[in-house]
Amino acid sequence: MFARTREDIAAVRTRDPAARGAFEIWLTYSGMHAVWGYRFSHWLWTARARFLARAVSQYVRFLTGVEIHPAAELGRRVIIDHGSGVVIGETAIVGDDVLIYHGVTLGGTSSEGGKRHPTLGSNVVVGAGAAILGDITLGSGSVVGAGAVVVADAPEDSLLVGVPAVARPKNGTQAPPDSFNYTDPAIYI
Questions:
Q1: Is 102 a catalytic residue?
Q2: pLDDT at residue 178 above 80?
Q3: I need a labelling partner for 12 at 20 to 30 A (CA). Which of 3, 5, 41, 75 fits?
Q4: pLDDT tens for residues 79-126?
């Protein structure tokens, strides 16, 4: 548990230029608090203490403004920057090293059971206010622009902007080579 916490803090220090130190991140980053609360509620969920898992999830939501269903699957070093307003649905799957900004929804489009929330590959960046809806898959390395509404699958290394979002390959653009964490989708518009 402590190793994962250190790993999360190191990920924030690497990817957030506003982060000034481990203690500050540990104490003040509500997105990290939400992920840590999710891990506890997910552990309860998998131990079949589902009511308690949901109760913990809602308490964390009250404290952080981030709602992550305890049945969702989050990878390692997932960062929710600025925290507030993020919703991650029950059957969502989020890969490793994913960066999610505030106001993002990983939601469903159906009231039917089964897989109904999106799957994000590793190293995906989701801009503020974006909505990724339904049982769709975004390939690893993709970048979703702020305010985009994504309702269809996208291959690896896609850039998705607009409503509904249109997928374009990131290759051949003028993005800096080390930009996976901080790609500004506006440069592709």
A1: yes
A2: no
A3: 41
A4: 999 888 999 999 999 999 999 999 999 999 888 889 999 999 999 999
> Residue 181 is encoded by which pair of tokens?
């964490």
Stated length of the chain: 189
Considering Cα of 21, then 64, then 49, then 110, what sign does the dihedral take?
A: negative
Marked catalytic residue, from 33, 82, 102, 117: 102
State the burial class of residue 62 (Cβ atoms within 10 Å of its Cβ: 0-12, 13-18, 19+).
exposed
Long-range contacts of 143-149 (CB under 8 A, 24+ apart): 143/170, 143/183, 143/185, 144/185, 145/185, 145/186, 145/188, 145/189, 146/101, 146/185, 148/185
